[in-house]
Write a structure and sequence with these properties.
The structure is a homodimer. Chain A contains 16 helices and 13 strands. By secondary structure, chain A is an alpha/beta fold. At the A-B interface, helix 8, strand 13 and helix 16 of A face helix 8, strand 13 and helix 16 of B. Chains A, B: The active site is at 232 (proton donor).
C-alpha cells in the first residue's frame, strides 16, 4: 500500500559561508521559514572565523551575525569544514554549503565538497564563470555523487533566469538567442543617460551620482569594464549544450567591449576615476547624439547568439519603442529568451537584479528546490 | 563516508490522462528527454480508453497516440487506474499522474490519488480554481502522504508564474499586488483593438478574425466572459496565505466584469455570437475613444490586490507608456508581481501563455522538479 512508501521528510544541515549583507539576509529568511522547517544551520563562517554546531545554531538576531561569528568563532579552517560536514551526510539527511562570498578560493572547493556528497548553493559567480576545467570538474563531481549545485542568484539575483533557461533546454526547446540588460549598475546608468532625447546629464555626472548612491563598485571601472555581464553570459551559455565548451577561459573569453576609457584603465582609485571621467564626456555624448538621431537609446547588453556561436557584451542601440527602452527603469535587469517555441515573440523576465534581499531570495529558492 | 549516502536515482512511472494536443506534445517531450531517463510512461488514456504497461509503454510516433489508445486500449476505468498505479508506488519509485484533460471529473480524483501516494501534475485549471473544499482536500491529501501536486502550466502555460509566486511567498517576501494580462485570447483581441489611436478595426471584426485563426474558443463568449482569467486569479490568490480562503466558490467568487453583451448571453452558438456582435460595436468603440482621449489603451486584466483583499477581472485603462501598452504584442501574457522586495518596480514575466508546445513545457518542467 501507498502508506509504506512515505518516508520522513529529508532533513537539511545548512552551512553558511559568508555572513555579510547577502549572507545575513539569507540566514534571516531561513530562520523565518514558516511551519516545521527541515533546515537547521550547522555552520556560520566569515573569511576568518567559524561557528560549528551539528545540532543546529540557535536563532539569533542576524543583524550582528558577523560580529558574533568573529567574537565567538574558531579560526576559519577549510579542511575542518569538509571533514565535519561530510560526517553529517547520511540517508535522510543532506548537507548544503551556501557560499555567500565572492571568493575564488572558496569557489575552487566546490568539486571537493560535491565529491563528499555535500550540495552547493551560491550567488558567487566565480566558479561558474571561470575556467572551463573548474566548471567541468563541478559537473563531474556532482554526477559522481548525485550532490547538486544550484546558482540561480548568480544571474538576475532572485529573478528566475537560470531555472527558466534550464527548463527550456531540458524540455527540448531550441534556444536561439538570449539578449538582456544583465547589470543593474549599467541599467541604471544608461536608463538615466540615454532616454531617446538629445539633451541629458553628462555621462560622468550619472556615474558619479550612481557611485554616491552606492549603486556602483567602489571603483566604477569595475562595472563599466563589462566583466560582470561577461560572467553572467558565461554562466548562461554553459547551460546551452552546443555552447558548453565555447568559453575555455570563462568570462575572459567573452567578446566584451569595455566602457572604461583607455586613459583611465589604470586609474589608481575610484576617486581618481570619477574625477577624470569628465574628460571623456564628449565621446559619450557623441554616442548618445548618434543614437538619438537614429531614434534609438543606448543600452549595455549581453547577447548570446546560439546559431552564430557568438557571446558578446557591449553597448548597443535599441529603438525607443523596444522594451529595453520603454519597459526598463531604475536598475532593473531584463532578459529575453528567443527560442523555437518562444518565437517570434520572446519570453521576457524583468525586475531588480541586485540587492541583498532579492539575492538572498534566489539562494533560498534554490534551497527550497532541494527540499520540495 | 559520503559514498554511503548515494542512493540510486528515483524512478518515475508516469501515467498520462488525455493525449490530445497538449498530452501528445508532453509525451513527445518526455520521450525525447536526453540521457538516461528516470521516467517511463506506464499508462496512456483518452476519455474512453487506456493502455497500461507497468514496465513502460515503448516509444512510438506520438502523432497517432490518440488513435492508438482508442484502437488498442481497454475501456477507461478510474478505479483500475488508482488500483494499478498505487501498486507501483514503492521506495525508490514514484508514480505521477499527468492530467492533460480539462475535465471536472478527473480533477475531482486528485485527492484520492494523492492519498494513495501518487503525485499529480496538470495544466487542468478545474481543481485549483473550483470550490475551496476540493482545493483544501488536495492540500490535506498531499500533506498526509507527502505526494506532491504541481500545476505550473495552469497559469501562463510554460512561463514561470506559479513557481515565482511560490518562491516569493516561501522566502518571506510580502506580495502586495499581482496585475496582468492572463488570457492570450484577450491579449490578442485588445492588442489589435486598442493601440492608443482613435481609429482602428471594429471590435466584432477583431473577434471574428481571432476566431477564424483559432485563437478563441469555438464560441468567443467563453473567452469574453472572463472566466479563464477568473480561474487563473483564483489559482494564484490561493498561493497567498492571507487570501487562501478568500474565494469559497472558486472562480465564480471573483469579481469579474464580463465583456459578453447582455443581449448575447444566450447566443445559441459561436456562429450566432459573431454574427450578432456587430450590434455592439458602437459601445466598444465608445470605450476605445474614451481611453484614447485619456492617453490610454484598453486591456482585459486580472488584479489581485492583497492589501484590499480584492480579486477582480475586467477591462482597465493603461497609459500608452505602460508596459501593458508598449511591451505587449501578439497573444502574450504579461504578469507583474509587486512585493515588498520588488518595489517600487515590479518583477515582470512575459511571453506566450497558450499553445500546446509551451503548455506541455510547463507540465514537463513540473515533472523535472520532482526528479531533480
Amino acid at each position: 500500500m501507498a502508506q509504506s512508501s512515505i518516508s520522513p521528510p529529508l532533513q537539511f544541515c545548512v552551512a553558511v559561508i559568508g555572513v555579510g549583507l547577502v549572507g545575513s539576509e539569507f540566514v534571516s529568511q531561513l530562520w523565518s521559514f514558516p511551519g516545521p522547517s527541515p533546515f537547521r544551520i550547522v555552520l556560520l563562517a566569515t573569511s576568518r572565523n567559524l561557528i560549528f554546531q551539528p545540532d543546529g545554531i540557535p536563532k539569533t538576531t542576524s543583524a550582528q551575525l558577523k560580529a558574533e561569528v568573529s567574537a565567538l568563532g574558531l579560526p576559519f579552517d577549510a579542511p575542518f569544514i569538509a571533514r565535519e560536514l561530510s560526517g553529517l551526510v547520511k540517508p535522510g539527511q543532506k548537507v548544503v554549503i551556501v557560499d555567500n562570498t565572492s571568493s575564488d578560493d572558496i569557489a575552487s572547493l566546490y568539486p571537493t565538497w560535491l565529491r563528499l556528497g555535500i550540495e552547493v548553493i551560491t550567488p558567487n559567480k566565480k566558479a561558474y564563470s571561470g575556467p572551463l576545467n573548474l566548471y567541468e570538474d563541478i559537473l563531474n563531481a556532482s554526477s559522481e555523487t548525485g550532490a547538486r549545485f544550484l546558482n540561480e542568484s548568480t544571474v538576475g539575483a532572485g529573478l528566475p533566469v537560470i531555472s527558466t533557461l534550464k527548463d527550456l533546454v531540458a524540455t527540448g526547446d531550441k534556444v536561439t538567442r538570449i539578449e538582456g540588460v544583465f547589470s543593474g549598475t549599467m541599467s541604471y546608468i544608461f536608463n538615466q543617460f540615454s532616454t531617446g532625447s538629445t539633451e541629458g546629464p553628462s555621462f560622468s555626472s550619472v556615474v558619479k551620482f550612481a557611485r554616491e548612491k552606492g549603486y556602483t563598485e567602489p571603483n566604477p571601472a569595475d562595472d563599466l569594464n563589462g566583466t560582470d555581464v561577461a560572467r553572467k553570459l558565461t554562466i548562461l551559455s554553459r547551460l546551452i549544450p552546443s555552447l558548453r565548451q565555447q568559453l575555455p577561459a570563462g568570462f575572459s573569453s567573452v567578446d566584451t567591449a569595455s566602457l572604461v576609457p583607455e586613459g583611465l584603465a589604470n586609474a589608481a582609485s575610484g576617486d581618481v576615476f570619477v574625477q577624470d571621467l569628465p574628460k571623456y564626456d564628449e565621446e559619450f555624448d557623441k554616442l548618445r547624439q548618434d543614437a538619438t538621431k537614429d531614434g534609438s537609446v543606448l543600452r549595455f547588453v549581453g547577447v548570446i547568439d546560439v546559431e552564430k556561436n557568438l557571446i558578446k557584451a557591449g553597448l548597443e542601440r535599441y529603438p525607443v519603442t523596444h522594451p529595453f527602452a520603454t519597459s526598463l527603469g531604475g536598475s532593473d535587469n531584463i532578459i529575453m529568451f528567443h527560442s523555437e517555441r518562444y518565437s517570434p515573440r520572446p519570453l521576457i523576465i524583468q525586475g531588480a537584479g541586485a540587492g541583498a534581499a532579492v539575492t538572498a531570495m534566489g539562494v533560498m529558492s534554490d534551497l527550497l528546490k532541494l527540499a520540495y
